[in-house]
Amino acid sequence: MVACVRHMVDGAVKREVRTFKTTTKDLMALSEWLSAEGCTDVAMEATGIYWKPVWHILADGDFKPMLANAAHVKNVPGRKTDVNDATWLADLMAHGLIRGSFVPDEPTQEMRNFLRTRKQFVRERSSHVQRIQKTLEDANIKLDSVITDIMGLSGRRMIEALIAGETDPFALAGLAHRRIKASQAELEAALRGRVSDHHRFMLRLLLQHIDAIDAAIGQIDQEVDAHVEPFRTAIQILSSIPGISDLSAEVIVSEIGIDMNRFPTEGHLISWAGLCPRNDESAGKRRSTRMRKGAPWLKTTLIQCAWAAARTKGSYLQAQFQRVRSRRGAKKGDRRRRCIGSHRCVPHAEERHSVRGPRQRPLRPPCERQANPSPRQPHPEPWLCRPDHANRGGSMMSLRQALTSEPAQPPDSYAAGRRPDRGQSPSIVSF
């Protein structure tokens, strides 16, 4: 790696450039050299995973490290060298033209690493399930047409019986649970196929992989439970929002941390997550309003939570989704709630039925409007309401404000140390 020290000597800029290896010994030498030169602020470019060892060494010293997004500090094309990049970063840093990227503290980074690895394992498990489905289709076993989850109780029994050599459709259909909706005749027709030794070997191999992944996910869950204590209050607050499970709350906290001073407003958080339209305007014309890439791990989680909130019966978010969907479609309605900070999701208790626009009418879930036409009762969790916005209809508490509020009564599952949603696919919110 190449480092450049920039000094002002008698009104003139003086630079010194040195090259170091990335071993721990050389990185310690880099830190000592910077200390000897009297450096106080250090800017470095984010390069995949390779910036982290350098960051850890410099963060232990008396420096103020700043991580720069490579896309934000690009120089003129065709003049790129390591030395030019180092001097360019030093000049940008001296003029205050670098916006530092968000680097959470070490406990948050550990939680983030656990949960990102867990998500990768869940995706890998889904790929293996699809390979099992492909193998069964190759053997003309139509199991997925009569059973929703081929890795459920009944599907697992049938696949293990096929591996053991059972080929009688009647015997295989008898392994189905009594709650399977398909009839006996449909099960027998779907399980009549041509299973060879090759298919049995592939099914056995894929099941072993799935079992190994399930065991790894269980170990990650245990590590998360052992390190979740500093974040428990924030997780309790987030999990009380419709559509956000305990696992989703853990993912959100691991991605943004619990110190909301990093984001001046909820709009900054939404923009950092990549959940707002991009600015792409030239000559007075808006060329594109597509969302930016943002933070992909947080963005996918919030989008899943938004769809889960749209299906939460009896909630304000579902009513808001149905209202917007009738005019602008399902995806636009989902984007309206995909905002953890956009002033519209959890309104003030006295004003939350107000709807802005030409038609001022109460907004309540459909089931409640039919069963109880009278106004709804006050919000059961008043900490979600914003008393400072009592004169604004439809105002919402942002995630940034939620994490700085007093927690509600913790769920029974947390009091007992249980995790009710472990083993399930994460429901996700993007408000």
Describe this structure in words.
The structure is a single chain. Helix content is about 45%, strand content about 5%. The chain is mainly alpha-helical and about 425 residues long. The chain folds into 3 domains: about 1-95, Alpha-Beta Complex (UDP-galactose 4-epimerase, domain 1); about 105-225; about 230-280 and about 290-415, no CATH class. The chain has a two-stranded antiparallel sheet with strand order 1-2. A two-stranded parallel sheet has the order 3-4. α1 packs across α2 (about 50-60). The radius of gyration is 28 Å and the shape is elongated. The two termini are about 40 Å apart. About 25% of the residues are buried. Mean pLDDT is about 80; it is low at about 340-360, about 380-395 and about 410-430.
Low-confidence stretches: 340-362, 381-397, 410-431
**Residues in helices, as a percent range:** 40-55%
What overall form do the CA principal axes indicate?
elongated
Strand order of the largest sheet: 1-2
SS summary, helix count = 17
What would the average pLDDT be, to the nearest integer?
Answer: 80
Number of domains: 3
The topology string of helices and strands comes to: EEHEHEHHHHHHHHHEEHHHHHH
- In what range is the share of β-strand residues? 5-15%
Structural class call reads mainly alpha
